[in-house]
Amino acid sequence: MLLLSCGLGFVQVVEAHCVWEKVKLQVTGPNRDKLKVLLVLHLLLVLFSFSGIMSKLAAGYDFMSLGFVLCYGGMLCLLGVYAIGWQQVIKRLPLTTAYANRAITVVWGLVWGALLFNESITAPKVVGALVVLAGVVLYATAGDDEHGDSVYVQTDGGEGV
User: Fold this and answer.
1) How far, in whole angstroms, is CA 147 from its chain's centroid?
2) Could you give the C-alpha distances from 35 to 9, 42, 50, 124, in angstroms and in order?
3) What are 83-118's pLDDT values in tens digits?
C-alpha cells in the first residue's frame, strides 16, 4: 500500500510538472502543430494497443477457426491503419521522439490486461509503468536545440519548423 501511495504521489508530481509546462508553453504556431501531432501519435498508440487485445483474443480460439480468423484479421486491420498513421506522424516528428512515446503502450497493456483479461496488477508492475511514464515525460521535456525546444514539425513544403 505504501508503494502504491508513493506511486500515486509521483504521478501527482509529474502532473503538476506537466501543468506548469503547459502554463509556460504558448500554444500557437509550431507548438500547436506539435501538440496536434503528439495527440494523433497517442491516439495511434491506443489503436496499436488494441491490436494486442485482438491477438490475445485470437490465441483463445483454435487455429483457423472462425473466431481465430476474425480476431487475427481484426488485428491485421488495426496494424495496417496504425502503420499508415505512424508514417504520417514520423513525417512530422523526430523519430526519436515518436519512439520514446511508444513506450506508453506498456501502460496500456497493463490497463487492458487488468480490465479485459482479469490480469493482476502488482506493485512491481505499477512501479515499472511509472518509470516508463517518467521516462517519456523526461524525454519529452528535455529539449533538443539551443533554445531548449524539441519542436520539429514538418510543413507541407518539407521544411522543419
Assistant:
1) 26
2) 26, 11, 23, 31
3) 999 999 999 988 888 888 888 898 899 999 999 999
Predicted confidence (pLDDT) per residue in 16-49, tens digit? 445 445 544 444 566 778 888 989 999 999 999 9
What is the CB-side half-sphere exposure of residue 125 using CA atoms within 13 A? 12
Residues 6 or more apart from 44 whose CB is under 8 A from it? 82, 85, 86, 89
* Rounded-to-integer distance, Cα 42 and Cα 53, Å: 17
CA distance 111 to 67: 24
Between the alpha carbon of residue 86 and those of residues 41, 49, 53, 92, 154, the distances in Å are 7, 14, 19, 10, 14
Q: What is the DSSP letter of 94?
A: -
Model pTM score: 0.65
